[in-house]
Amino acid sequence: MGRVEKAGLRVDETLAAFINERALPGSGVEPRRFWEGLSMLIHEFGPRNRALLDRRDELQSAIDGWHIAHRAEPKDTGAYRDFLAEIGYLVPEGEDFQIETPETDPEFSSIAGPQLVVPITNARYALNAANARWGSLYDALYGTDALGDLPQGRGYDAARGARVIAWGRDFLDTAAPLAEGSWAAIEGLSVKDGALVPALREGAKFAGHRGEAEKPTDIFLKNHGLLIRIVIDPSTPVGAQDKAGISDIVIESALSAIMDCEDSVACVDGEDKALAYANWLGLMDGTLAEEVEKGGKTFTRRLNPDVTFTAPDGSEVTAKGRALMLVRNVGHLMTTPAVLDRDGGEVYEGLLDAMVTALCAKRDLDREGPKNSVTQSIYVVKPKMHGPEEVAFACEIFDFVEDVLGLPRHTVKLGIMDEERRTSANLKECIRAAKHRVAFINTGFLDRTGDEIHTSMEAGAMLAKGEMKAQPWISAYEDRNVDIGLACGLAGKAQIGKGMWAIPDRMAEMLEQKIAHPMAGANTAWVPSPTAATLHATHYHKVDVFARQAQIAALRRPSRLDDLLTIPLAGGRNYSEAEITRELENNCQGILGYVVRWIDQGVGCSKVPDINDVGLMEDRATLRISAQSLANWLHHGIVSDGQVMDAFRKMAVVVDRQNADDPAYAPMAPGYDGVAFQAACDLVFLGRMQPSGYTEPVLHARRLQAKAEQAQKAA
């Protein structure tokens, strides 16, 4: 790996070339100022970062000792809570307050809707996510199991099309009801004197049209702040089948999208980081493009333009054509060999991310044309922070970055991932620490469960992974996130989010279940695909989230901290041999299915078949909970080393079969000696020793090993 010297730093030459040749030119930031600023950030903030990680270890050691000392005693949540306060794990809760974040974009303040999370290293996925602001409801219904079954055959099925049209009419009756009758009965649409014909019920909003008023090509409606576009084209198969000539209903879908540099990517060196940053820059300056082959044709995918139409008063309206984009930096834990400090040590990756992603996002603030943020903001999601001290540290980092890059104070808005127990137990004070920056809080069940298991590792054997969602702590966690967010004034300023729907092929189930997220008071929730975003968007037409938030704030009693601190122990539960085998094999198969792609191919997020061949969206959060579950059972003697290894070998054969059609796949069996298989074993057998139960240290080390071996073979 070649390196260049920059202000006392030794920088990977690929990364340095990207910053010097692409990120800095046109940014308004002098190269010398950038590199000296980065060097100062790394050398001044690095030791403080290390001290925060040492504090995590100190607290974990104290908690381990307490559980060991009290393991034989009945569980006393009050005594446990007092102990956590005594060691400083729980901090005193201050007076009530309201956040003071400067103006945020409408996608945070006044419109509720789905949020996509995609790996920034995949340009096609990133562009698809940005362009998922608008989605065809008809396509989403026709091409998935949303209607209860999947399409059959290759051509257009008119009978299925009729079912789609009927579903769409029912949706319009809910989202924009007519003054008289149903949308199912209309035979045409027109605009007269700035009003829709047929007329809408009072309260429903006609937003505008395209084409001639007497014979429009598009009608735009608005409900709960979300636009609906009715496309009229009787020349298409669908339009010809429809008595009003409606060929599609296109709705605002993914209002926002997180471009992820963290859990869904496999960035382990300077080359990987340069790719991630380059794609983020391309999204921010509008130049990102990707050649795509589809249906035997090749085309170039770019960011979609804005959407324009004629308002009822005759003026022109411009609506966003793209999701509002956030970037997720890495947390405080990991270092990266992409840059070495003056002593030759790897630098903290989160510090590098903060400076470079903000530099790239500055391009959006300065350029002409459609902007990502209409309020001149940069949105950074910061994951895996432990408690208010670490949140405050993140805010200081961005103070420094803003000064170096010449940005006004609080340009960078912060998203707090509420996915570590020390953060959820101290959430009010975490928000206070970022009260001038916070624009987003979000629950993450999988990472939060992984941390729950690791933090309480010495308390005893935990319940099986599938039983966790029914435990008191998880409902307290989900409710407290909303309760505290509302009490701190996030409504009307910031997003309160909920987690991912992880089964992208089960859209009928998603339509049935995920309405619980807006009903819970979340003004956004994560979805795994643009299609899922379109279907989930229909929930936000049924639920007025901001009214729901007001209702929750006024009527619901806040959840108790003691419920949050209730450890999900198996207690006297004696699992049968069959139950243990099922849990072992489920976890081992999921770990291997994800890890083999991460290590061998650098794929950080993908649809991985589970043990029943059902595709699940997997990233490091799902890996963390599976690995920590097995590490806990191993530690407490529920399973043995031999049982775990036998399960890994058995499941390696299953994963090999599931990937047999991938020409780039290297089978794990029968040797069981490849780097990926070794990494999976490390995650479990060494899981108890991993910091906070995180998977990154093992994955990064093994991926670097695999890349070195692949390079050696290629040479």
Task: Offer a few descriptive terms.
715 residues; alpha/beta; Malate synthase G - maily-beta sub-domain; Malate Synthase G, Chain: A, Domain 4; eight-stranded parallel barrel; five-stranded antiparallel sheet; 25 strands; 45% helix; 17% strand
Concise account of the structure shown:
By secondary structure, the chain is α/β, with parallel strands linked by helices.
Query: How does the overall form come out from the CA principal axes?
Result: globular
* Beta-strand content estimate: 15-25%
Helix content: 40-55%
Number of extended strands: 25
* CATH topology group of the domain at 577-714: Malate Synthase G, Chain: A, Domain 4
Counting H and I runs of at least 4 residues, what is the number of helices? 25
* Biggest sheet layout: 8 strands, parallel, barrel
CATH class of the domain at 577-714: Mainly Alpha
- CATH homology group of the domain at 577-714: Malate synthase, domain III
The average pLDDT value, as a whole number, equals 96
Residue stretches low in confidence (pLDDT < 50, at least 5 long) are none
